[in-house]
Amino acid sequence: MPAANNTFSVKIPAELTYTPDSLSSGNTMISNEQYNAATRTLTFTTDAIKKDATVAIQIPLTGAQITTAATPDTTVTYNDENFNEDHYTADGTDQAITVTSNEVPVLTGEKETTLQPNALFDPMSTMTAEDKEDGNLTGAIKVLENPVDTSQSGTYEVKYEVTDSDGNLATFTRMVIVTEAPRIIGAESKTITEGTLFDSREGITAIDKEDGDLTASIQVDGDVDEGVPGQYPITYTVTDSDGNQTKTSIIITVKAKPTEGTLTADAYQVGGSDAYIHGTTTGDVSYVRLSVNGQFVSQRLVDEDGTYKYYTRPAILSVNDEAIMVRV
């Protein structure tokens, strides 16, 4: 017999959630749908069902609580299509529904990272991923974008994602800030004359992009003895609030004061019997230096009485040679 006036009643357990007006069927008409949220009871009717026929009705349910035994309770009342007075009730055979978690993984890490110039950056540092079903997914994290260049100051975005076994996707963005080291200005190697005063801080300044003027924070290492000719290294160091440090080294050369005095050479005959140039000096002259045709030959020590003599035969061979003697 065909079953008519089919009224279904479905008691939905608390572990499941039903969204009203979401019933559907591909082979019967559904009408008179009602859902009582207080009693969690869904009722609806269908067209007549022929003998031995099967109808499929989709009742969308979502899990509200994790369980292994969420069992709906279904009953149907109906009558023989030919005998409206006779009503029948049938209990459904409901299967237990298992509700599992399907949560998105939790992807965490340092949201903002500050790096010094030229520092090493590991994009996976501080990053972790946990999933309620899959557990630790840190090894499955993918770095989608990593434009960080620590040789260039600036702000960079590093992007990550991780997917669990259910296909749930989690994303994360980290801001990486590469700071800029301070600059030392005015530190240059120079030469000064013996006896000239030298101030290692004069004209030296330091500026920083974030901290501004750091001149007062410059550390100076090294001393210059202005009275002693020689080369003296000076190192300037400055550190900003981010810990970035800049060092600049220079060389200060102290040159001897010019010799004060006179140099006189006696007459010299090329090819003569006397192969020496003779002469006298006055003042602060310790050496005489000979150059021939623009080439330095050597220098000789002046005697205590201010006289000198210079053997020239290997150097001066012609009257056309240009010989120059200077005091040192």
UniProtKB/TrEMBL annotation:
It comes from the Bacteria. Residues 107-178, 184-249 form the Pesticidal crystal protein Cry22Aa Ig-like domain. Coiled coil: none annotated. It holds the Pfam family Bact_surface_Ig-like. Residues 261-326 form the Bacterial Ig domain. InterPro entries: Big_15 (IPR046746), Cry22Aa_Ig-like (IPR032179), Ig-like_fold (IPR013783). This is Putative peptidoglycan linked protein.
